[in-house]
Known about the structure:
This protein is an alpha+beta fold. The protein contains three helices and eight strands; from the N terminus they run αββββββββαα.
Amino acid sequence: MGRSVVALGLCTMMLCLVALPSMQAHEQKTLSVILLDDGAVYGNISDPSFVQGNAMWFKMEDGTENATMVARLDVNQDGVFNASVDFESGVMMESCELDENGSLVDEECIVSSTYAFPSNASTGMYTYWILRDHNTTVTMWNYTIYVHEDIHEEDGPSPGDCFGAGCETSAAADEDVNSGVPPDEAILQILVILAFVAIIFLSLSIRKDRLSGKSLDSVHASEDE
């Protein structure tokens, strides 16, 4: 029965894989927002590649002595900043002092801050503010960023694929495209075949075990006579 158990396990695994829906997880991308003495480098952002689930990384690069910066984001899109519901970075410095062991002298000192939009974030325009404090003189810049809907498209290159000028054309890839069979569907077809083969082996193994059991019963019966 040992082989039957193994075959049954393989069959179950194959069927589970076949039953799994085809899903493509969104790969989070981070937009760097560099902060200088005259504000954010990019300012207003409307790039369609910035979608739900992506992140904004605020990096303080203002080397002015005694200058600090704070980034705020209007998370609920109501046009005003509310500390209880909206995002606010800590006070960012251009650099942080380290001791001889490489540890922060001031553990609260930061040079950057990140806000990641949820994968189900509301699409549309968000306001973000950059506040610069230099010797108690505060300057504030208002910017906007547009978060687009994250739409998964099967067409086009996958992460890590080579595309554009300088990439070699693959004849095999062209054949796959011309065949009209999506890669995910082809994988499912292979899994179905493997599951079918596992079922056949399972049936044969069970039949063989039963025949062996009957033979042993016959031998024992003959010995008893």
